[in-house]
Amino acid sequence: MSTRRTMSTRRTGHSRVLGAVVALIGVVLSTMLVVAVRRDEPARAADFGPPPTTTTEPATRPRSPEPVTPPEAAPANTTEASDRPGSLRVPEPRELSLPRLGLRAPVDSVGVADDGRTEVPPDPVRVGWYRFSPAPGSAAGSSVIVGHVDAKGRGLGVLYALNEVRQGDRVLIGRKDGSTVAYEVTARRTVDKEALADSEAFRRDGRAVLTLITCTGPYLPDAGGYQNNLVVTAEATK
Amino acid sequence: MIAMTVRTAGAAFTAGITVALSVTAGVPAFAQSRAAGDQATVSVLHAVPGLTVDVFAGGKELLPDFEPGTLTDPMKLDAGSYDIKVFKDGEGPEGTPAIEKTVEVPAGANATLVAHLTPDGKPTLDAFVNDTSKVPAGKARLTVRHVAAAPAVDVRADGTAVFKGLENPKEAKGEVAAGTVNADVVLAGTDTVAIGPAALDLAEGSNTIVYAWGSATDKNLALKTQTVTGMHSAPDGVPAGETGQAAGGNNDAALGALAAGAVLALGTGGYLLRRRTDAV
Known about the structure:
- Chain A is α+β, with helices and mostly antiparallel strands.
- Chain A has helices at 2-10, 12-40; strands spanning 76-78, 93-98, 103-110, 127-130, 142-146, 150-151, 155-156, 170-175, 180-192, 209-220, 225-236.
- Chain A is 16% helix and 31% strand.
- Chain A starts with a helix and ends with a strand.
- Chain B is mainly β.
- In chain B, the strands form 4 sheets. In chain B, strands 1-7-6-3-4 form a 5-stranded mixed β-sheet.
- In chain B, a hairpin with a 5-residue loop joins strand 14 and strand 15 (193-202).
- The N and C termini of chain B lie far apart (123 Å).
């Protein structure tokens, strides 16, 4: 101990420099690692456009026990099944594409799983049209397309590209009758998963829009995984 | 035939039997939030075979020349008590009504007034409240009303009995997966088909109301369908991510790097500080 101490005293200058260098290396190393890791994350620009709901602030609003019932939700009464507007048979969607992002995905028809949430195609290179929402090209309401951002054993999904979507990007829906419906991205919002159902994403009336839904971080494995949905809204172009 | 029916009805109602119906059960919760809270939505179904009628409500003619098998569009009526009189076409309002009943129309309710036959074939009138409460995502509500001069029946969907032992003038309802089902009506507990089969399109978020009407004796049993739409719900969520890869996935690695760096820096700093102290 005394020997070391003597040596230390003798070499104080050297040690200080060495220590400082090691400390600096530590800081630089950690910074580099963090930067490297961050680079793997989506280069997410800020969300844009009007929020997906006009009645409430999705992520920040206190969760009210009773959902707001929009006036158009009042039941309508029709006498015969054939009178329903839904029976106009808008062609079903077949393919989704966002040309600028090189995104192209076949569209499956999906419904509701036993847990009350939407079904999502297990293969993340495919997307699903929520078949109880209006088919794209309908006169009113939000046509919903869902897709995995990532899936077990299958890597990232096609909708991962929505992290790089910009206002004005063209979205094309190819339909089963061979026709195409064109949309233009107007908004992207990060919506608390708990608030999605009460947002306008699933409205059946009002302005006709296409709504693309996937998941987004933070990812908390102990709290059910992804905490938010990424909701991209596009409006039909004339 | 028509005259006979009317005479029978007249006999049955000579004393001007008035029955107040309670239609308050099942008033939908949203009713309170409706702007026109003091009104009700009322449709009328004529399910008495072979009898064209005029329907009067509170002394005013509501439906002239109303033909069997006809269901009106929904009408907005002020809530309250209505004295409903059904006359053979052209005999009202001074003659003897074929059917007379006082019906309570509660504010906000969505109801259907049904002129139909009793189990033993006499004309009568009943008010049914249509369930307009929210339907879970992906589901459809199916309501079946037995308003026919016929014994108890079972209602089958795709060959499976969904409602059993339904009697006139009762209804049965439930929520089923949305879609098309092949429905028929059999005599309760048997495989003897009384009506159908018929394809029913059970639209998601709607209430499809099926009336079994007519007369078994006269072999004119039939189905009539009414659909009340707009009770759909949003799904409970969109589970569109599994692994966390898209969120950078390696949050742990980032934390690890930070921790390692911090430990290294702190450790070195501490060592230096000690050295300095020691040196002095």
